[in-house]
Amino acid sequence: MSKSTYFLQECPTCGRNLNIRVVYLGKRVHCEHCSAPFVAGDSTGQGDDSHGDSGIALLRRAEQLLESSDSLRERPR
Predict the structure, then answer these.
(1) Is residue 1 part of a domain?
(2) How does pLDDT run across 24-58, given as a tens digit for each residue?
(3) How many Å apart are CA 77 and CA 73, to the nearest integer?
(4) pTM above 0.70, yes or no
């Protein structure tokens, strides 16, 4: 059984921080607090390409998030 990987995003309407599954990157989601709809995306602006290759940019960012998650799990505690 694999665990889901999440990223943190602020709701553009109410400002609350949300844990969103990486599989929802680029998809329309709703805030669990205020129910406002928005597109789940990386708020850092890295890889943001709104002129055509945005799907590829989202996949690259998802891969970066997964790699950083893997490296955190491998770190000795």
Answers:
(1) no
(2) 988 999 999 999 999 998 555 444 444 445 567 77
(3) 9
(4) no
